[in-house]
Amino acid sequence: MLLSIVVPTFNEAPNIMELVRRVTDVAGRMARDGVETEIIFVDDSRDATPDVIRGVAVNAPIPITLIHRDVHTGGLGGAVVEGIRAAASDVCVVMDGDLQHPPETIPDLVDRYRRGGVDLVVASRYVDNGSATGLADRSRVLVSKSSTALTKSMFPIRLRDVSDPMTGFFLVDRRAIDIDTLAPRGFKILLEMLARKSMRVAEVPFDFADRHAGASKASMRQGLHFLVQLAALRFGKMSLFAVIGGLGAIANVLIVWALTHLGMDYIAAAIIAAELTIVANFLLIERFVFQDMKNDASNVWSRFAKSFTFNNAELLIRIPIVALMVGSGHITAVVATAITLAIAFFVRFLFHSLVVYAP
Ligand code: GDD
Ligand code: MN
């Protein structure tokens, strides 16, 4: 059997030698059981990491491949997907490059896989005998535990057998995943795989160790990515679009309120508020809703022009329609506004998904 070990790296120069040493030790032992091993580094570094990798690859007893990316599409998750695509074997272990994932756990993953019946083996911190000494401080433990609980509650069935959906250490048989449907962003690539396709899963415990050297790249920004990813996976684009639209409506009201309080004329305040929220709305959906649907043939300004024109036209058309409905005498202004807003929401969503972000 052939095993590909995929390691995403971002500025991990001081960790590479030790990682390769420990992985090749383990590979030597696994070779006696008929498992051949390769390592694929998918690197986005700006430090000496690629040079160090090329250096150790020369004399290494197992094949080491370096994919150095100049465009860091999808960050950590994108790197993992690229590594899995490039792997010589269908069976891939994904692990971090900072030795928080002990290479000595790899044989446990492989053994469990070879016993059969599973597509995915998760190395878990939260199953019996697993632990997380490397979660440096209390706040990190709290963040990890609460985001795990939140995630599990949102995918109660898919994640029933997974105690640690946020781990970055696992073995996957890539024949069981639909690699083209993965839209990885940031750190939570395993969650993405689990949420998109049902798989047969097993877990083995491991100890999430301290970093060998260097500092974590986790950040508030990654945390935000995670929440957006969760919403996108769970409710799809339309609900994310709705959430952003709802926030826009609230902002709109607040701006009108503030400007009229400052003494501005109601009409002027309403126009300013509407245009500001239209622009903000575009920036948010561009970034968070349709980020994976940007057509190479269009550019941001042409998308903005379409979106801006549509929203203004919608605004202009909706007001006389509301007036007509109210004028007919059967409907109050509030009901008429609500109905037109609901219809406008669907039309706006369709327009953006089919025209602005044409597939
Ligand atoms: N190629 C690439 N591109 N690699 C990256 C990037 C990136 O943008 N960002 C981080 N990495 C690499 C790091 O170099 C490291 O090898 C690995 O991904 C994990 O990054 P860390 O910075 O060490 O993250 P962490 O230890 O805070 O998070 C780990 O534990 C979490 C659970 O607590 C990761 O395994 C997460 O996936 C996991 O959820
Ligand atoms: Mn780490």
TrEMBL record:
UniProt record similarity statement: Belongs to the glycosyltransferase 2 family.
Main location per the UniProt record: membrane
Membrane topology designation: Multi-pass membrane protein
Identification of the protein by name: Glycosyltransferase family 2 protein
Gene Ontology annotations of biological process type: dolichol-linked oligosaccharide biosynthetic process; GPI anchor biosynthetic process; polysaccharide biosynthetic process; protein O-linked glycosylation via mannose
Location(s) in or outside the cell: Membrane
Domain Glycosyltransferase 2-like, residue spans: 4-176
Domain GtrA/DPMS transmembrane: 241-356
InterPro entries tied to this protein: DPM1-like, Glyco_trans_2-like, GtrA_DPMS_TM, Nucleotide-diphossugar_trans
Lineage summary: Bacteria, Bacillati, Actinomycetota, Actinomycetes, Micrococcales
The entry's keywords: Glycosyltransferase, Membrane, Transferase, Transmembrane, Transmembrane helix
Gene3D superfamilies (UniProt xref): Spore Coat Polysaccharide Biosynthesis Protein SpsA, Chain A (3.90.550.10)
